[in-house]
Amino acid sequence: MEGKDMLSWEQKTLLSELILGLDAAKKLQSRLGEATAETDEILVKQIVSSYERSLLLLNWSSSPTTVQLLPTQITVVPVKTTGGVPESPALINGSPRSEEFVDGGGSSESHHRQDYIFNSKKRKMLPKWSEKVRISPERGLEGPQDDVYSWRKYGQKDILGAKFPRSYYRCTHRSTQNCWATKQVQRSDGDATVFEVTYRGTHTCSQAAITPPPASPVKQKENTRLKPAITTTTTTQKPKDLLQSLKSNLTVRTDGLDVDDGKDVFSFPDTPPFYTYGDFGHVDSSPPIFDVSDWFNPTVEIDTTFPTFLHESIYY
DNA sequence: CAAATTTGACCTGT
DNA sequence: ACAGGTCAAATTTG
To answer: Locate the WRKY domain: which residues (predicted)?
Structure first.
């Protein structure tokens, strides 16, 4: 029973601020029109959706006319801060310049731990929401498709009561750009085709979608065709297997669809290769539409429908 | 050889 | 103490 009526002053301010931002972003979006580079378009979309999510997180009932979120079921888990306002540094500030706390004390050697604690505390206050992503062998991927970011796996853990382990990802540019966005992917116990992706924190990295290294002799592909412009989204993923890259971070850009708010990009979650699970009974008797083993079976073709882009190799 | 993943140890909040 | 989350060394991958 969360008293949502107890909007503090800060929350109100934040709310109106966000609405302002959203409004501006939308105006900009419509103003950009079609004469815009794809890059900018994506960026604007991201800005807009960021605002929308933020507002959602504040339990702001989105008016149907203004905000229409993704049709898919998005389980927004409002951050239940025990009394503080969920302030997300990057969100409010807008600037990626969320300066690192200046270390006041002279803790010199235990800095690591300090950092850890700090971050751990801070992390809790980051906005959090989750989406359900479903994959079907021939239907492709369904779900909110807005994950254009590149993630780096940093952990995997067995969860009590869950059949499959949960894997943890963080933004690839955490260190380089101080981007603290993370996500965790958990395969549903029941439905083998469903994954629950939980995001924490918004991206502050500038290169959310595309960041062309300006000063480097990048071979600018001039084919600005209406092809699946798979940009540097997942720069150096591992095309080991198609499946692997799929699982890890699939990003497909479908072009034609002028879905207004839906992003054309899709990212596929990760699946644990082997869930060496002790015999907890019999785990394997689930109705395998297609089993995990299939995912690793090169015979099985999952990419029947969607454009296999197989990102261009970026060699050096 | 650099970047990404794996995996057990470690940290923190119930 | 335990479970969930993260770190970091070792390993794999490109």
So the answer is: 140-203
